[in-house]
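Subject: sequence -> structure tokens, single chain

Hey, anyone have a minute? Need the predicted structure for the following. Not urgent.
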Amino acid sequence: MAPLPGAELVQKPLQLYRYLLRCCQQLPTKGIQQHYKHAIRQSFRVHSDEDNPERIQQIIKRAIEDADWIMNKLRMVPVEEATIQLLPSSRS
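Reply:
Had a minute. Here:
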């Protein structure tokens, strides 16, 4: 099960980028949203020179799976605990 409808239509990096940013809007707090938006941007910068179509499809598949895992985890955990578990910088 994908975090948002339309995951199966994602074929290109720009589509993935937009899809993942839409997933971030579903996260419960602004802090968590900002953390994952930053991580998405960094990942796209790191992989911006990737030109192997097979590798690009692997990255897209893994990114959607990771987003699915995060969204499912948040559905099962109260917001306070999710903030602690999903944002390493928020641990005291």
